[in-house]
Amino acid sequence: MSWRATILTLFPGMFPGPLGTSLAGRGLERGLWSLEARDIREVTTDRHRTVDDTPFGGGAGMVLRPDVVDAACAAAMPEGEARPLVYLTPRGVPLRQSLVRELAAGPGLVLLCGRYEGVDQRVIEARGMIEVSIGDYVLSGGELAAMVLLDACVRLIPGVMGAAESAEEESFSATEGANLLEYPQYTRPAEWRGLRVPEVLLSGHHAEVARWRREQSEAVTRERRPDLLSEQRRDAAAQAPLHP
Ligand code: 6GU
Fold first, then answer.
1. Which residue owns the Cα nearest ligand 1 atom 5?
2. Residue whose CB lies within 8 A of the most ligand 1 atoms, among 9, 14, 88, for a mutation test
3. 3-state helix, strand, coil in the chain (%, to 5)
4. How far is the CA of 61 from the centre of ligand 1 (A)?
5. Please, are residues 28 and 2 in contact by the beta-carbon 8 Å criterion?
6. CA 145 to ligand 1: nearest atom
7. 14 backbone φψ class: left, alpha, beta (φ>0; ψ -120 to 50)
8. How far apart are CA 90 and CA 87, in angstroms?
9. pLDDT tens digits for 85-122?
10. Which residue among 67, 135, 206, 216 is buried most deeply as judged by most CB within 10 Å?
11. Per-residue pLDDT tens for 118-160?
């Protein structure tokens, strides 16, 4: 059974969107994973197909009703099915590659996309949803965030990434340069607009290239993302500031 993604959304027409192209799209076509977008409104039974209501306690906006969301979850996930249920919300835990690896290694995901002011907290807890945010900014709905999470997971499914796009050596990978940003890359021509490629990369000295790249990774991480460095590395960085 391949990796399965089910999206619960008020805007199913947004899917597959960009996930239907490129690496993820080829993976879909090859059956390495599957995607199903379900309209939350489909489970309603009233004449107006109501999914939301005003918040208790007052305030702006509308809140998705717990009974509607629960019915949408039940319809997407037959009893006994055990896919993690992720609710995309700016108040969720920040998405990190460690969570992406765990989710990609499992059977798939059910993703609940919020709109309006959110989802009634009781159904989030009753269904044991994992609340996830993709960063410190506000999107108008969870759909784009769901696509981001899916893209991150799908590229880790065996067979989705070709050898050329190997996930191994990139930023945030579990390998050697873990928790360091990528070193800069160069290709031909060796001189462009009078700008030379760093000579060490043309030298053919593999050990020196590796050392230079490691130094570059550490320098750029220190500059842009000191939060990624361990306390020990942060102390070392304070002793030796980056020279421009
Ligand atoms: Cl998961 N949803 C929304 N609406 N905005 C976000 C987000 C999620 N993550 C960051 N901003």
1. 139
2. 88
3. 40, 20, 45
4. 16
5. no
6. 1
7. alpha
8. 10
9. 999 999 999 999 999 999 999 999 999 998 778 999 99
10. 216
11. 999 999 999 999 999 999 999 999 999 999 999 999 999 999 9
> Please, what are the domains in the chain?
3-154 (3.40.1280.10), 169-239 (1.10.1270.20)
**To test ligand 1's pocket by mutation, which of 10, 133, 140, 149 has the most ligand atoms within 8 angstroms of CB?**
133
Q: How far is CA 11 from the centre of its chain?
A: 20
More confident residue, 180 or 178: 180
Quote the pLDDT of residue 21: 96
Question: Model ipTM?
Answer: 0.97
Residue-level pLDDT at 230: 76
Other beta carbons less than 10 A from residue 84's beta carbon: 16
CB 116 within 8 A of CB 61: yes
Per DSSP, which regions of 61-165 are E strands?
A: 63-64, 85-94, 108-113, 118-119, 130-133
Quickly state the pLDDT bin for 200 (edges 50, 70, 90). Answer: very high
Residues 6+ apart with CB under 8 A from 50: 44, 65, 68
CA of 65 to the centre of ligand 1 (A): 19
> Which residue lies with its CA nearest to atom 3 of ligand 1?
139
Res 7 pLDDT > 90: yes
Query: Mapped to the 3 state alphabet, what secondary structure does 7-60 carry?
Result: EEECCHHHCCHHHHCHHHHHHHHCCCEEEEEEEHHHHCCCCCCCCEECCCCCCC
Helices (H), 30-136: 66-76, 97-105, 121-126
